[in-house]
Structure formats: structure tokens, C-alpha cells
Design goal:
The chain is an alpha/beta fold and 318 residues long. 35% of the residues lie in helices and 28% in strands. It contains ten helices and 17 strands. The chain has helices at 9-16, 41-44, 61-68, 72-83, 100-109, 120-135, 163-172, 215-219, 275-290, 295-317, and strands at 7-8, 19-22, 31-32, 37-38, 56-59, 90-92, 113-115, 138-148, 151-156, 176-189, 192-196, 204-207, 211-214, 227-229, 232-238, 254-257, 260-269. The strands form four sheets. An eight-stranded mixed beta sheet has the order 14-11-10-8-9-15-17-16. Strand 6 (90-92), helix 5 and strand 7 form a beta-alpha-beta unit. The longest helix has 23 residues, at 295-317.
Length: 318
């Protein structure tokens, strides 16, 4: 059974730096299970079909102005109808004044009301970003996650193949470490997965023969990063003479993590191969692909063009 994650309302209030206008008796226990946010304009006009009461409800200037134009009894009836659905919380944006009808309804149904000076769209985007990151499906993978030229590389392979040592070499070359040994991966969007390190081992790297080192203390705070989107999975393995390694890179191989397909490459290692440099090139090559340039395909086109020209020349001579 898939685990369901949640986000505490009290934590969201702190992140938004919001003011508590009315504190429900279960305020500390309220959990948010969806990153979707709702502006209940239609609900305040008494349309409740397809209404999702599990979402945080945001009130902006439009909704506030509409409610202020109604008689007090009508305002109370509409607020009461909304609160009756046991929503997680109601957040008033733009520092809007709170009317007595709203407070009475909140107290009657024991629903927390928060207020922020921020704009509605700003508040909505911040809630979505914060909550979706925390409640996203996740999995832990053995590997090393580094950022190289802005590209997130997840290094995987058998234990002892040299992943951590390569990460140290990349740090010396100015790149950044996100996680070593264990990588917590979250699906934060439809086609986006993000990796971070478990809190206990964050910023630490294990090097056989030396033990555990603190990367932030040795290389500085600029050498570490808390989280990073994963763009390329690099499978590192010991060189095998009987293996058939990709020579051109035309075919695009992918690996599926949490339902998201991520490009993957297999990089064989043996004495004399500078793995850190190879990974730097892999990151730059992947970035070029994001920008629409595929070197292997361009090379293949040039070969095809050259062959076509030679065939045409031979046909003219005959």
C-alpha cells in the first residue's frame, strides 16, 4: 500500500508568516494532504458541485469585496455553508479586515482562519510549492547525487565502484554535493523528480580508508546543496571486455523512478579513465540536449550526408 504523506497546518502558517485570526482547538493536529489550493468564489455564490473540502481555501480581494457587499445575515449564511464542509483552514490575503460574520462561522465550526499581507497569487504559489514538495511520493535509492553545471547527476552502481571518490573530485572542481550513499527521491511534479539527503547524513561523505568527512566544513557551504532535480542517471560499473558499450549515443535509454522516465547512461571505469571529467562532459552534453542540440544525431546526419554525396558522385561517373 502506497504511503500517504502530509504537511502540518502550523508549519505552513510559519512558512507564510501568517497571523492567526482564529485558532481552532485542533490547530496543532490539522494535516494537509493535497498541494492543490482553492479560491471558493463559486462556493460563496452557493455552487458546491465538484467542491474539494480537503484543500486550503484562499480569500482574495475579489471574494472579500463580494462578501462585503452582502447583508450581514447573508454573509453569515455563506461563510457558515463553507465552514460546514470542515475545510483545513481559511486564509485571508492582502491583510483583509475580518468581519464578525466570518469569525462567528469559524468559531461555530471550529475552523482556523489565517491572515497574510501577501497577494493571493503569491500566497497560492508558495503554498503549492511548499506542500507538494512535502507530500510528494518518495523512494530512497543507494547512490550519490551531485550538481554539475546545473545538471543533477544521480550516480548509481555497486558498492565500492568509486561513486563517493568521484563526488569528492567533482567537489574539488567546483561542483556541489546533495547526497552520498542514500538519496531520498520525491516526485514533485508530473515529469520532475527531486533528490535530497536524509537529515542524519546530510553533507557527509564516507571514504574508505579515511572514514566519514564533513563536506561543508572542508570545502565550504558553497560545495553543498539541500536538494536538486535529477536530470541524468549515471550507472557506473567496472569495465568488462565482453560488454557492448554505446559508442555513438544515438539511442536514448531511460530509467523509471516514481513513474518519471529519466535519461540514463552506463559509464565503465578502469585505470586511466578520469571519471570526474567524463561526468562533467555528460552533464554538458545533457544540457545541450535540453537546449535542442543532440551531438550524436548531428554526427549521424553528417555521415548520412557524406554517404549520399559519395553515392551521387559514383552515379555520375558511371
Amino acid at each position: 500500500m502506497e504511503q500517504v504523506y502530509s504537511y502540518k497546518l502550523s508549519k505552513l502558517k510559519d512558512e507564510l508568516r501568517a497571523e492567526i485570526v482564529y485558532r481552532a482547538t485542533n490547530y496543532e493536529d490539522v494535516l494537509i494532504y493535497t498541494g492543490d489550493v482553492h479560491r471558493p468564489g463559486l462556493q460563496l455564490a452557493d455552487f458546491y458541485e465538484h467542491f474539494e473540502p480537503t484543500r486550503i481555501q484562499l480569500i482574495g480581494q475579489m471574494e472579500s469585496s463580494y462578501m462585503e457587499g452582502l447583508p450581514r445575515d447573508e454573509r453569515f449564511r455563506k461563510w457558515e455553508k463553507l465552514m460546514k464542509h470542515k475545510i483545513p483552514a481559511l486564509i485571508m490575503c492582502h491583510g483583509t479586515d475580518i468581519t464578525g460574520a466570518l469569525l462567528e462561522s469559524a468559531e461555530k465550526y471550529d475552523i482556523t482562519v489565517l491572515r497574510t499581507d501577501a497577494h493571493t497569487t503569491e500566497t497560492m504559489s508558495k503554498i503549492i510549492r511548499l506542500v507538494k514538495r512535502e507530500i510528494a511520493p518518495r523512494v530512497t535509492r543507494h547512490g550519490v547525487l551531485v550538481e554539475v553545471y546545473g545538471v543533477g547527476l544521480l550516480l548509481v552502481g555497486e558498492s565500492g565502484v568509486g561513486k563517493s571518490e568521484t563526488a569528492i573530485e567533482l567537489l574539488k572542481r567546483g561542483h556541489r554535493l546533495i547526497a552520498d550513499d542514500a538519496v531520498e527521491i520525491k516526485a514533485i511534479d508530473v515529469n520532475v523528480i527531486q533528490g535530497t539527503a536524509p537529515e542524519l547524513i546530510r553533507h557527509y561523505v564516507e571514504l574508505r580508508g579515511l572514514g566519514v568527512i564533513d563536506v561543508r566544513q572542508i570545502f565550504g557551504s558553497g560545495a553543498v546543496k539541500d536538494y536538486q532535480n535529477i536530470h541524468l542517471v549515471c550507472n557506473i560499473e567496472l569495465w568488462r571486455d565482453d560488454a557492448n558499450y554505446d559508442r555513438l549515443g544515438i539511442s536514448e535509454n531511460t530509467v523509471e523512478i516514481l513513474g518519471v522516465k529519466i535519461p540514463t547512461v552506463t559509464i565503465p571505469v578502469k585505470p586511466g579513465r578520469n571519471l570526474a571529467v567524463i561526468l562533467e562532459v555528460a552533464a554538458m552534453n545533457q544540457r545541450q540536449k535540453f537546449m535542442g542540440y543532440h551531438a550524436a544525431l548531428e554526427f549521424s546526419k553528417q555521415i548520412d550526408k557524406h554517404v549520399d554525396e559519395k553515392i551521387a558522385e559514383a552515379a555520375l561517373l558511371n
